[in-house]
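Running this now, will post back.
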Amino acid sequence: MSDKSTRPKVTKQQIYRSVASSTAIETGAAVQTIEQNLKQYQAQAKAVGLAH
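Update: finished.
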C-alpha cells in the first residue's frame, strides 16, 4: 500500500489550471481568461455570508 505522505500535494493553482484548460477545450475560450474568472468568482463567493 502507498503511504498518504508520499502522494504529491495538489495546489489550488493546479486545480484552477486543470478546470480552466478543460473548460477552454470545451468552449474554445482562452485558458487564462477562464482561470481569471474562476479566481474572481472564488473571491466573490468568499465575500457572501451564510444566512443564520
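The mean pLDDT is 84. More later if anyone needs it.
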